[in-house]
Write a structure and sequence with these properties.
Length: 387
């Protein structure tokens, strides 16, 4: 297949997947499509792993090395507002995070490797459900992913709006943060708005808590250690002329180590319960761990950077980029096996393509970077499993 035909195939795959988005653990059509494409390539395909997940194996030669390449496959619950001929056909579902592009990229790598056969060993193409909920990687591992399909190393990629199209960046250590969710339930005593002295105002109490939580970052955290606390919902059962009885604060925290996660949880609990106590209110504090941090293995970062240099040139590769405080459940895999996660630029203001933010109703994956991503993964396999 020549370059022009290959790029057309990548775009065809990507746009089909974009127009048929499915959310977490519901990716049945997506899984069917992937399995057919991979089977038609001649790969050994295993389905229904962790729900709708797929592993496709390609072995060339007698090498013992095994490398995993992973793509996420789920969409998010968002109504698309883009004006493309391939916009979502599933109401309220949209590939607004670029997983359609990730899938097409990994399919492209599989296509290149089946044709070139320029490596010695085994590649496992892992298509993972439910990344957006943070549950898919754990579901595949619970279903015996690494016992049934062991790998020596695993690699993944995410597109990044705002980065120059086709550039590649990564870093050793934490590259994407954990996500922990919290709920703070405050029970005061409602009263008429004209008589606040007769109640225990949970809005004022909750407001004190929201402000006090920010002092954890400014006064309990080492300034050189990244962490974020965000209160994102503030819910009351009051009306305009009545002070409510109940307030619920919801939000999340982001960090990179278990030690920081523990500190945030303990300080948030102490502050919330303490402020409620001094104001005579009741407090229920809930804190859950949703996403593990994505922490790259240094030796695998070296491999990724070398492959990226070979494909796009040194001037388009950043091997020590800034970490991103968003979360990605690829981190769960990296707690079990060595690996590396990279960002590929989706486009910036200089080209006017691909710079709409992720999870935006007008976001679209930049088809111009599909071939670059596929070539990167194919080169990575050539580097790691030399003939």
């Amino acid at each position: 297949m020549n370059n022009e035909d290959f790029e057309k195939q990548l775009i065809e795959w990507r746009q089909y997947l974009h127009s048929h988005p499915e959310s977490a653990f519901e990716e049945r059509n997506t899984s069917e499509f992937l399995a057919k494409v991979l089977t038609d390539m001649g790969l050994e395909v295993h389905r229904n792993i962790g729900g709708t997940g797929i592993v496709a194996n390609l072995t060339v030669g007698d090498g013992k090395g095994i490398i995993g390449i992973r793509s996420d496959i789920d969409a998010i619950n968002l109504t698309e507002e883009g004006q493309h001929p391939y916009t979502s056909r599933n109401p309220g579902k949209m590939h607004a995070c670029g997983h359609d592009g990730h899938m097409a990229t990994v399919l492209g790598a599989a296509k290149l490797l089946t044709e070139r056969k320029n490596f010695n060993g085994t590649v496992r193409f892992i298509f993972q459900p439910a990344e957006e909920t943070g549950k898919g990687a754990f579901a595949m591992m619970k279903d015996g992913l690494f016992e049934r399909f062991p790998v020596d190393e695993i690699y993944g990629m995410h597109n990044m709006p705002g980065m120059p199209a086709g550039s590649i960046s990564t870093r050793a250590g934490g590259i994407m943060a954990s996500e922990d969710n919290f709920v703070i339930r405050i029970k005061g005593q409602g009263s008429h708005a004209s008589s606040p002295h007769m109640g225990k105002d949970p809005i004022v109490i909750a407001s004190e808590i929201v402000l006090a939580l920010q002092t954890i970052i400014s006064r309990n955290m080492n300034p050189n250690v990244p962490a974020v606390i965000s209160c994102t919902e503030f819910i009351t059962d009051g009306i305009r002329n009545a002070i409510p009885t109940n307030v619920v604060i919801k939000g999340d925290t982001r960090s990179y180590t278990p030690e920081v996660q523990k500190l945030l949880e303990e300080r948030m609990r102490t502050i919330s319960e303490g402020i409620c106590k001094i104001n005579g209110a009741e407090c229920q504090f809930e804190y859950t761990h949703e996403f593990a941090p994505t922490v790259n293995w240094a030796e695998c970062v070296d491999n990724a950077v070398r492959a990226a240099h070979n494909v796009v040139g040194e001037n388009k590769v950043d091997g020590n980029c800034q970490p991103w405080m968003a979360s990605e459940d690829f981190g769960a895999f990296l707690q079990k096996v060595p690996g590396c996660f990279v960002f590929i630029g989706n486009g910036d203001d200089s080209d006017g393509v691909g710079n709409v933010p992720l999870h935006n109703s007008r976001y679209d994956f930049n088809d111009k970077i599909l071939k670059i991503g596929a070539e990167y993964f194919a080169e990575l396999i050539k580097v790691r499993l030399p003939k």
